Amino acid sequence: MEARSSSSAAAAPPPPSIPSSSDQGVWADASPLLAAACRDLQDGELVHGENFSLFAAMSALEIMDPKMDSGIERSRYNSIEEAIEDGVAPIPLSLDRTLDVQRSIDVMDHLFSCEATWHKGHTLAQTVFTCIYLMRMERTSSHAVLNSFCRILRATCNAVISVVSTARTHEEEDLFTMSFGLPLRDEGDEKCLSILNSVEETISRQLRACKAQALSKKKTLEGLESLQDNPDLEEDYCRALLCRLRFRKHFYHVVMCMRKPHGRGLELARKHVASCLTELNLMLKSREFLKSQSSTTLQQGDGNCTTASGCQPVGFDVTLNSRLLSPTPPRAAIRYFERLLHDLDVICASSLDPVLENVLHFIVQFQKTVPDLVPRAFLQTLLVQDGKLYGEHLFSDVISRALSLPDIIGDKEFQMNEFVVQLGQLVVNLIKILCTNTAWQRRKLGKSLQDWSTISIQLELALKREFGETRNVLQNENMCMRVSKQLLIWTQEHAYWVAFRFLTLGFELDLYSPGEYCMVYWYMYVVLTKLIEKMQLRVLASSETSRRKGKKKKDHSKDSARDITFSSSCLLLQCYLLLSEGLSMMLAVLRNESRSFQLPSIFNTEQERFMQHFDLLLKTRVPEHISFYSFEESSSRAGISDLVKYNFFKEIQKIVPSLRGSFASEPEKLAEVRRIEQVAEHNRIALNIINQVGAGEPSLRVSFEFTHHPHFAVAVVKRS
């Protein structure tokens, strides 16, 4: 493209020379050059200087493109005051009281959409604060409904920014917390709840009066001033306003309760979440009434309007803040808030379990729904508070609990140990990483492997230095050595857990092509082998510690070994291992005997692709003695006879009944077992067909689909 554009630019007539400083001006008219470029350049070509590169194009701004040039759509007004003087944001919104209520509801609805858009990672300046009423809140003091709504919205935005800033998850959506000098705080904001409660009570009394009037069949309301002028519409407008105001109140309570330390407000937050969902449902029900009224009060808006009535809201101007950033389209509010509240409810339902394995499992399960930035920030601030788990448990105690060493929980010497302090920080970082979005999570997990690997090596060297040459040790030294060994095993286990998570996230991000599945599943098999090995060693060490404390029995070691062998966690990992090994061998067989799933590329070799995918793991030696040549040698020996002989997929079906019993009270894990069983069954059938027809049969067509599990593919066999 550069070559073509350069030749085209060269063919253009020479541009006029720039006048020197001795001339009347220093500006040159570029119109002839631009006109010549317009005539000669084709689509995709550009005029550029000699030092311009494609890399520079990544950070270039395209002038006159509305998406990149924020100044192209100029506002009709130079300031907010000028817009107000022109009647863009009137107070009251209309002299017709019925129309004033309708327009107030439209403003509320559009602010819901703007708030949802902001939560998705856009800026406050071009979402919530496109509302002039929010920019000049003091003007709304005479309009109780609008003033109370805007005040509590602003207070909620401020609280959410505080949570996201504390969690530092906004690095992925770095515009989220930027306020651009907008009026986010005011002296009266601490009274926002009492102000809204007062307005809510007034409208509630009005609604009760409407119901009483309907029963008594009176034509007028006695002792109360109506919201608007049409008595027949009073009740419906009261309901429409109340559900919106109450949602704002309950959502504010949700945010404030979830910010309480040590998870003390979670139970109350769940009640407010339920109330929010109820009000959202009432907001949906009010749509029909509001749409029916808009045709008689205002012209119908376009199909993309964000209000229940279908009318464009007054009091908004997206171009006033265009110097800060370009406008962003508003999101569907109710659908977003329903999902947000569901995610927050899941967090509030957390058992605050201090067992690290359960904490990591909870985060991974939570991330399967792909939550947005705000719920992930709330989850992180709940888990890590003041450097402690839930703000209560020191991470040194969390580690000692994971090592099954209750005696050293609270032990000052253990807490101050250099390695324990470093491991505690690694666990904190791991929890924070798992709370980021999928792409950032994978990237940071890969980089964190270096830290896990380094401390593992340091622990191993320290263990050899302290105890390597000593055989006869005293009891207290023996305890020290035992703790050091368990700490090393635990560290190595978590390094492999991080590696496994890193590999599986690649499937969620669609980073692997079908031609690379073989190497990915092979690497997963190798990592899982080491992970299971370290997990069993840890459980064995924990059982040995427990045995020494209790009475010594001859068969206790056999019982411990049996417990390890049939540990449900190990069995689940064993299923993953068998799936990985089976899929890797099946793909290798197809590569060897039918030459399928081989993608020769002019850009890179298979070895280069291996390095690109696993470089972070190879650099940290996770696991050791693994290279591309190990994979090449292993896959080249794969044959259909060996695959049928070992039948990894059938082995999984033997383990599944035991897992069903172990996870009978855990629906999420039970669902995972069902998914694994389906993948194993479909692949077992596919393997039988491939064996009967012959892997080298030219008419055989095999593809892989992720229909039952996000990480483990199912072979689909067809004959052409």
From TrEMBL:
InterPro entries: NAA35-like_N, Naa35_N, TPR_NAA35. It comes from Miscanthus lutarioriparius. Transmembrane segments: none annotated. It comes from the Eukaryota. Residues 1-11 have a biased composition (Low complexity). This is N-alpha-acetyltransferase 35, NatC auxiliary subunit. Residues 1-25 are annotated as: Disordered. Keywords: Cytoplasm. One of its GO terms (cellular component) is NatC complex. Residues 44-187 form the NAA35-like N-terminal domain.
